[in-house]
Specification:
Layout (H helix, E strand, L loop, with lengths): L7 E7 L3 E7 L7 H9 L6 E2 L12 E6 L4 E8 L13 E7 L15 E9 L11 E9 L9 E6 L5 E7 L4 E8 L7 E9 L5 E9 L5 E10 L8 E11 L9 E14 L3
Antiparallel strand pairs: 1-2, 2-16, 3-6, 4-5, 5-16, 6-15, 7-12, 7-16, 8-9, 8-15, 9-10, 10-11, 12-13, 13-14
Length: 271
């Protein structure tokens, strides 16, 4: 039976302040890619998976019922072998969803806009990150000379202890803005709220990660007057999922990463 996508909606209100919110929620097994695409790129493909080299497994993003949240959630699969990066690169693996040039304008950031991204995710209690990179969220530019380097990245990294790290690139080189021990997130549903005023000189950035069960803030960072744009960018867009290096494949294992309740809210329209 064909699913009707009722939980994937966009609300827009125009009054004193323009407000537009896009919501993507899992609605049960089957047609997961179609559901994601109906929100992030209607009529196109916003899903980047390793299916091409691992057809016998099937789709690498599906939906399952989560007892803790009491609702359906998205499950992202990645396997140490034979998964790769879309049969294009073989030293890394990618299983992500994204906004991109075919996406609705209201989920693409242009300069002077203020956008809030919210989502929930859960790492397995035995999750194993790479000592190279394992990215789970990025804000990236499309167009311009700095498009290859993400503006902001949430990455998990093997260490003593393992950590979740917030990375930032003003131009083409990254720095760390903060870290938290990964143990605080493993096996726990957490909610992320990330708010960005996109501006070449006077941008603003704020992120908070909260344990859903306890309400405790696990990680937070806030900065004003920070560059939140990329040179000659057409727009900036979010990505979520698992993007990890295979250079230290012995660090890794097959993983399932859960996501739920994506929302993109345009808080301030371009002047």
């Amino acid at each position: 039976m064909k699913k009707i996508f009722l939980l994937s909606i966009t609300f827009c209100f125009v009054n004193q302040v323009n407000f537009c919110q896009t919501i993507l929620e899992a609605d049960g097994p089957g047609e997961t890619y179609e559901l994601i695409n109906s929100v992030f790129a209607p009529g196109y493909n916003a899903v980047e998976t390793p299916d091409c080299n691992h057809n016998d497994f099937g789709r690498h993003i599906d939906e399952v019922f989560d007892k803790e949240l009491n609702k359906n959630v998205f499950r992202f699969h990645i396997h140490t072998a034979p998964d790769n990066d879309r049969c294009k690169k073989f030293d890394r693996q990618r299983n992500e969803i994204k906004a991109y040039k075919q996406s609705p304008d209201n989920i693409l950031a242009v300069e002077k806009e203020k956008i809030q991204y919210k989502w929930k995710f859960k790492l397995d209690k035995n999750f194993q990150p790479s000592s190279s990179f394992t990215h789970i969220h990025q804000i990236k530019a499309v167009g311009g000379s700095e498009a290859s380097m993400p503006l902001f990245t949430l990455t998990v990294r093997k260490g003593s202890p393992d950590k979740l790290e917030l990375r930032y690139a003003k131009n083409k080189s990254q720095v760390s803005l903060g870290k938290v021990a990964l143990e605080a997130l493993k096996g726990q549903w957490v909610e992320v709220t990330e708010t960005i005023l996109f501006d070449d000189e006077k941008g603003k950035y704020e992120i908070k990660i909260t344990n859903l069960k306890t309400g405790k803030t696990i990680f937070k960072y806030k900065k004003n007057n920070i560059r939140t744009w990329k040179t000659d960018a057409l727009f900036l867009r979010p990505k979520w999922g698992i993007y990890r290096s295979l250079k230290k494949s012995t660090d890794l294992r097959d993983e399932q990463l859960l996501y739920a309740d994506f929302s993109i809210t345009e808080l301030k329209s371009k002047k």
